[in-house]
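Whether sequence alone determines local backbone shape is best considered at the level of individual chains. Part of our work consisted of pairing the sequence of a single chain with a tokenised description of its backbone. This step matters because it turns folding into a mapping between discrete strings. For completeness, the protein is quoted in full, as a sequence line and a line of structure tokens:

_____
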Amino acid sequence: MPTQDADLLRQSGLRATPGRLSVLEVLAREPHVDAETIRQRIGLEAPSLQAVHNILADLHSAGLVRRFVPARSAARYERRIGDNHHHAVCSGCGTVFDVDSTTGDEPYAPGAIPEGFRVSTAEIVFWGVCADCA
């Protein structure tokens, strides 16, 4: 995947630096993680936490990662982009699960939005307890 990721970065106008490639690799293996977790997963070659935040900001601005912020939590990142999905967060263990939308490609329930308002994205976070914590 590093070659594909390098190509993806270049196509998005970003240089394929070791830091960016490492962050993308972590997110490919483990979605829904925060910057500190990414830094830990990179290991000995990890850039500083600030550098990880900068890399994530660049990747998010380029549309290569999705950023979402569950209440009472650090921002989380994932590579699943370009589709309409939401998240469920376990209030016991903090695990985040993807929830596919029931409205298809529309990022909202048609008819629930004021006339003339154009929705570009929507984020719904469901809170509850997962099966392991129940």
